[in-house]
Structures are given as C-alpha cells and as structure tokens.
Amino acid sequence: MIRTVTLNPAIDHFVRLDQFELGHVNRAKADRKVAGGKGINISKALKSLGHTSVAHGLIGGFTGRFVQEQLERDGIVTEFTSINADTRINMKIQSTMETEINGVSPQITEDELSDLEKKLDLLQDGDSLVLAGSVPETMPSSIYERLLTRIEGKDVQVFVDTSGAALQSVIEKEPTFIKPNHHELAELFTTTISTKEEAIPYVRELLSKGIQFVLVSFAGDGAILGTDDAIYMANVPSGEVVNSVGAGDSVVAGFLSALREEQPIEKVFAFAVASGSATAFSQGFCQREAVETLAREVFITKWGDE
C-alpha cells in the first residue's frame, strides 16, 4: 500500500486569461478548481499511472469537503483528518506568465496532529509512505521528522519531497528517496549550484547518510540521480510546457511507480523524468501512455562513462 501525506492541502483555483494586468480588472476566459497539495498531486499521478494509494492530510471547512469529495469522485481513497479551520485556497493565474498566490495555512491543534499520527500507525512492512509539500507555518519544521520517528522499526519505504528546514530535519532519518531541485540542494548545503557536475559531491554526501536515492531536478536541463552504485544523468524530452503545477509531484509518482514495478534503475529514472514532462506538457496529470512514449526520449548515462 502507498500512503501519501499532505499537511497543507488546498483548493487550487486555476484562472486562464489572455493577459494579466496588475491594477486593472481582468476577465478570465476559463477557470477550474481542483484539489491540490503535493501529496494529493502525487496520489492523482499514481492513479493515472495505474497505482492505488491512500491520501492522508489535514482538511477542514467547506473547502476541505470540496477536496475530499473531488478525490473520492476521482477514485482516490482518502483517510483525512478533520480540523476546525478551513482548508486554504491557492490562485494559479495562467497568462503570458504563470503567477501563483498561495493562501494562508490553517491553524492546526496538537490534538488534530496527533489524530493524523495515529492514522499512520496503519502502515505495515512493505508499504510506501510519501511525505510531500511545505510545512504550514503553524507547525514546527521538524514535523516530518516526528512522523518518521513514529514509524521507526517498520520496513516502510519513505519518499520525501520538501525543502529547507523540513528537508534538513529528515536527513538523519534515512528516507528512501528525496527529490530536491538544484536550488533546494544548494540551500541544504548553504552554497550555490548551477550545473549537474557541481551537484554531484553534495548528492554523494547525502547518499553517505543512508539515503538510497537522491534525485535532483534541473528543470529544462534534466536531472541527476544518485544511488549507492552510480550517479546517473538524464535529459528531458522536448515539448511545450503548458502547466508546471504538479510536474515535480509527477516525477515522484513516476519514480515510485516504476520502482514498485521492479524496473531496472535506469528505466525507473527515465520513467520518473518522463512522468514530470507528461504533466508539464498537458493541462492535467501524466497519463501512462504519454509517459511511456516520452520515456523513449529520455537518455540515461552514468557519470564518468566515456
């Protein structure tokens, strides 16, 4: 079983218009509202790729009901924890440029957080746990570390996609997989990273701490994957980016999907990169057929090979 956790869910309100003018009345050509949040997005992408998951998180109010109802309508199993505050709303403005306005995170009580923790006691050996997204300002940045401490002793694969202090706090817990972009990796080590080659020493340092897979994305310049055996490089397939929301989450879902299917690591990496591209090239989430087609355009090389 795969369980995803979204501490800061949202309704993502996408608004499309020809041109966005600050300080003027802007009229939308189209809009749509979807359940959002990184863990939720990963559950959606997993569903598209043929894998089931259970979505966990903290939701409340009429906005929280919308999130739960939409996911259940889409066939995604949910075991959310109810909170007293309303789930936030994020605005995604799609025009000549993409602009995002993220809503204020709700206040979370200790009792609500404890209820979420108890739900994770359902994890069993062989399961996968995905912790994804930002930590609400109302929670300590070490919350992911706290959740991982609770499941210590269980043979659970842990996939973490976060940044900053939240990512720093889980490193010593030896998660199975982390996916910082190159800016987040640089922040982790208080440095600057511009190229894949510059990232390699820091990837190796993370691997030395017991992390099995370190995937670092470089947007249009591809990605690198560090494992115990090798450092791999990947390009990204060509295509027109029409939607960046959920692309990184789809990389995580693609990696997890291919890994659970026991594909060779080079194919796991290519499938993950192709999953992110398939989402970026469409208005929705990656579809399996599109991912498999794009994966043929992703070329994996080992660092150091001639």
Automatic annotation (TrEMBL):
Biochemical pathway: Carbohydrate metabolism; D-tagatose 6-phosphate degradation; D-glyceraldehyde 3-phosphate and glycerone phosphate from D-tagatose 6-phosphate: step 1/2
Keyword check for Protein transport: no
Statement: the UniProt record of this protein carries the keyword Transferase: yes
Enzyme class: transferase
Reaction it catalyzes: D-tagatofuranose 6-phosphate + ATP = D-tagatofuranose 1,6-bisphosphate + ADP + H(+); beta-D-fructose 1-phosphate + ATP = beta-D-fructose 1,6-bisphosphate + ADP + H(+)
CDD domains: FruK_PfkB_like
GO MF term list: 1-phosphofructokinase activity; ATP binding; tagatose-6-phosphate kinase activity
GO biological process: carbohydrate catabolic process; D-tagatose 6-phosphate catabolic process; lactose metabolic process; small molecule metabolic process
Top-level taxonomic group: Bacteria
Function: Catalyzes the ATP-dependent phosphorylation of fructose-l-phosphate to fructose-l,6-bisphosphate.
Protein name: Tagatose-6-phosphate kinase
Provenance organism: Halalkalibacter hemicellulosilyticusJCM 9152
